[in-house]
Amino acid sequence: MTDHIPPPPGEAHMPPPPPPPLGGGGYPPPPPPSGGYAPPPPGPVLRGLATESYTPWITRVAAYVIDHLPVALIVGVGFLVLQNSVESVCLTDVTPHTIDQICSVGPSSLGVAVMWVAALLALGYLIWNLGYRQGTTGSSVGKSLLRFQVVSENTGKPIGFGLSVLREIAHAVDAAIFYIGYLFPLWDAKRQTLADKIMATVCLSIDRTAEA
Predict the structure, then answer these.
(1) In terms of Cα–Cα distance, which of 203, 131, 137 is closest to 167?
(2) How many separate domains does the chain show?
(3) What is the pLDDT confidence band of residue 104, given thresholds at 50, 70 and 90?
(4) pTM score, whole prediction
């Protein structure tokens, strides 16, 4: 006859343990935040736009011309001063039997200095216009006049000074393949150049970016 061992006190009335969670040991997901809606997953905010929503190629070309006109004017003035400062310097070498004269023609020191100042001014303008102004507002001078912006494809916002400068450097890829990269907006669904694809940027009208 076996002895019956009574259960420890209080164990006879304990409820059975809960069933194991579904999915092989996982825990149910946490409840959504207040309001009952879970936040959307992060990702590009400009997906699904029609090609017509992006800035046309010809408009981008016009903005490029406007942006680079001041550069052409500044460098052109410096070049004219350089060319008009050409001077001739002659050296005479007298020997017992002959008199030799050697002359050289070249720009003056003033002309060279003016050209360097013009080049630095042009570079400063490009950094301000295509780096700082475009990076912080989305629009260079030309883009402002034609009412469109360069924005990040992922945020819909301007990309900032550093990335805007890097984007201009990335245009070297567009030029490296016989400038075909600049023509990509003619057939690309998002009207992007290769530099745009590298930097994940798109060109949209100012009204469109305000809605994003």
Answers:
(1) 131
(2) 1
(3) confident
(4) 0.73
